[in-house]
Design goal:
Oligomer: single chain
Number of strands: 23
Strand order of the largest sheet: 15-16-14-13-19-20-21
CATH architecture of one domain: 2-Layer Sandwich
CATH superfamily of one domain: ATPase, nucleotide binding domain
CATH class of one domain: Alpha Beta
Mean pLDDT: 92
Distance between the termini: 66 Å
Number of helices: 16
Radius of gyration: 22 Å
C-alpha cells in the first residue's frame, strides 16, 4: 500500500489537488480556475463538465513529474449546496450546476414559508428555508428538464451535490453516493436518523430513487478508474464539505472551538456533541461522520471574498485581493463609509432574501481607498454578526477564533477581525486547510494515522492577532454597521429594465 493521500478540493472558483505525506506535508499541488456565470440577476451557475475537467486537470498537474505517487487513498472536499443532475446511463449533465449562491428557487422557498412549515423543517433538518440549500435547487432542475420528475422517479436521472458528481466520475459511474456533511446541507436529511427524510422528499418533490446513498465522511466509497496520470484501483476514503473539512484541518475537534473560513463566502462553524436547534439564525449541521456523527452549529455568510472580487471588477483591478488591500492601506479609516455586500441577499443570522447591497455614509471626501477599506471591514462585521450569536448559543465566552481561507492572508482584515469581535484570531499558515482536513479523514480510514490526537500534531502552525481597539470605538463602529444592515431591504420588483414598475 502507498503512504500518500491525494486530496481533491473542488471549490466555487478554483479546483485544487494536493499530494499529502504521512507527516502532513504537501509534496505537490495542482490548481485550476473554475468558471462561473451569472446569466441573470440572482442566478449563479457552472458547467458541470467544466467542473470535472478542472478536477482532472488539477489532479494531472499535481501528479505530473512525481513518478510513482505511492497513493494510499483519495480524499474529496467540495463546495457545498451546489446542485446538479445527470443521466445515469450516459453520465451527461442535463443542465448547468446551480451554484450555492444562486437565488433562482427563491419563489418556491417563499411559498414554503407562507405555508408555515419552516419551524418543522428546521427541527427535522437543522436548516432554515433558504434558496442556498440544495433541495429547492434539485426541484428547480427537475422542473426544467423534460419529464424530469418522472425520469428521476424511474432512476434514469441522478441528482446530487458536487461531491457525488466528482465521485461518480472518479469511479466511472459505478458509485452514486454522498457523505453526511453534504447530505446535511440539502434540507432532505433527517439529522437524527441520518437518512433521507420521507416527509422532506414529499415537501420538495424529490424522488428518492434519484438521490445518492449516504455514507460517513471517513469511509471507503469505491475505487478509481484509470484517469491518466491517476492509476485505477485507488480507494476513495473520505468525502466532506469544504467548510467541515477546514474545521477538521484546523484541529477544531471539540465543542467551543470555532472557526471561520474566508472564501467566496464565509462559514463559521463550531462542533457540538448533539444536534442543537438554534432559535437565533444559525444552522444545525453534521460536522463530520466517522463511527458516529459529530454535529455543529454553523452560520453561513454569502459574500465575503465575493465582495472583494466585485469591487476589484468595479475598479478594474488586475488582482482584486492584493489591489483592494493596497487601496485599503492607503487610508487610515473608512471615513464613515459602510458597504453591506448583500449581493445575493443576506445569510446568517439575518436570512434576508430581499436584502440588496448598499453603500452608506458617502461624502465628497470618500474615494476608492475608503470603499476598499469598507469592503474588508464588511467581512469582519458579518463574521461578528454570527460570532455573537454563536457565543450566546454556546453559553460561555469563546476564547479564540480559528481562521483559514484566501482572505485570511490579509493582515489588515485579520487585525480588524480580532478588534471587532474582541477575541484573538488564530490564522492558519496553510492556504490548503480544507484539502488537508479531507486528507486527515482519508488517512484515518486507511490506517495511515491512528487517532485525532495524532492528527493534532500535524495541524499547521498559526499566526496570532490580538484585539487592540478600545471598547468605545469598537461598539460605535459596530452600531454603524447594524444601522446600515437595517437599510438593505427593499422590493427587488420596484424597478425592472430601468423603468419604474
Amino acid at each position: 500500500m502507498g503512504q500518500n493521500i491525494l486530496s481533491i478540493d473542488q471549490g466555487t472558483t478554483n479546483t485544487k489537488a494536493l499530494l499529502v505525506a504521512p507527516s502532513g506535508a504537501t509534496l505537490a499541488r495542482g490548481s485550476q480556475p473554475t468558471g462561473i456565470s451569472y446569466p441573470q440577476p440572482g442566478w449563479v451557475e457552472q458547467d458541470a463538465l467544466e467542473v470535472w475537467r478542472c478536477t482532472r486537470d488539477a489532479i494531472a498537474e499535481c501528479l505530473r513529474g512525481i513518478g510513482e505517487p505511492e497513493l494510499a487513498a483519495i480524499a474529496v472536499t467540495n463546495q457545498r449546496e451546489t446542485a446538479l443532475a445527470w443521466e445515469r446511463e450516459t453520465g451527461q449533465p442535463v443542465g448547468p450546476c446551480v451554484v450555492w449562491q444562486c437565488r433562482r428557487s427563491a419563489s418556491f422557498c417563499n411559498q414554503l414559508k407562507a405555508r408555515g412549515v419552516e419551524a418543522f423543517l428546521q427541527e427535522r433538518t437543522g436548516l432554515q428555508i433558504d434558496p442556498m440549500f440544495s433541495a429547492s435547487k434539485f426541484r428547480w432542475i427537475l422542473e426544467h428538464v423534460e419529464d424530469g420528475f418522472q425520469r428521476a422517479e424511474q432512476g434514469e436521472l441522478c441528482v446530487g451535490t458536487i461531491d457525488a458528481w466528482v465521485l461518480w466520475n472518479l469511479t466511472g459511474g459505478a458509485i452514486h453516493a454522498t457523505d453526511m456533511t453534504n447530505a446535511s446541507r440539502t434540507q432532505l436529511l433527517n439529522l437524527r436518523t441520518l437518512a433521507w427524510d420521507e416527509e422532506m422528499l414529499e415537501i420538495f418533490g424529490i424522488p428518492a430513487a434519484a438521490l445518492p446513498e449516504i455514507k460517513p465522511s471517513s469511509h471507503i466509497y469505491g475505487e478509481t478508474i484509470p484517469i491518466d496520470p491517476l492509476p485505477g484501483g485507488i480507494p476513495i476514503a473520505s468525502m466532506i464539505g469544504d467548510s467541515h473539512a477546514s474545521l477538521y484541518g484546523l484541529g477544531g475537534f471539540k465543542p467551543g472551538r470555532i472557526k471561520t473560513s474566508y472564501g467566496t463566502g464565509s462559514s463559521l462553524m463550531m462542533p457540538t456533541s448533539t444536534p442543537v436547534i438554534s432559535e437565533n439564525g444559525l444552522s444545525t449541521t453534521i460536522a463530520w461522520g466517522r463511527d458516529r456523527p459529530t454535529y455543529a452549529l454553523e452560520g453561513n455568510i454569502y459574500a465575503t471574498g465575493a465582495a472583494v472580487e466585485w469591487l476589484g471588477q468595479l475598479l478594474s483591478l488586475d488582482d482584486a485581493g492584493s489591489g483592494v488591500e493596497r487601496l485599503a492601506r492607503s487610508v487610515e479609516d473608512t471615513g464613515g463609509v459602510y458597504f453591506v455586500p448583500a449581493l445575493v441577499g443576506l445569510g446568517a443570522p439575518h436570512w434576508k432574501d430581499a436584502a440588496r447591497g448598499l453603500i452608506a455614509g458617502l461624502t465628497r471626501g470618500a474615494g476608492a481607498g475608503q470603499l476598499a477599506r469598507a469592503t474588508l471591514e464588511a467581512i469582519a462585521y458579518q463574521v461578528r454578526d454570527v460570532f455573537d450569536v454563536m457565543q450566546a448559543e454556546f453559553g460561555a465566552p469563546l476564547q479564540t477564533l480559528l481562521a483559514d481561507g484566501g482572505a485570511s492572508r490579509n493582515d489588515l482584515l485579520m487585525q480588524f477581525q480580532a478588534d471587532i469581535i474582541d477575541c484573538p484570531v488564530l490564522r492558519s499558515t496553510s492556504t490548503d486547510i480544507s484539502p488537508l482536513g479531507a486528507a486527515f479523514l482519508a488517512g484515518l480510514t486507511v490506517g495511515l494515522w491512528a487517532s485525532e490526537a495524532e492528527i493534532e500534531g500535524l495541524v499547521p502552525p498559526r499566526d496570532r492577532f490580538e484585539p487592540q481597539m478600545s471598547p468605545q470605538r469598537r461598539e460605535a463602529l459596530y452600531a454603524g454597521w447594524q444601522e446600515a444592515v437595517a437599510r438593505t431591504t427593499f422590493s427587488p420588483d420596484l424597478y425592472r429594465n430601468g423603468q419604474e414598475a
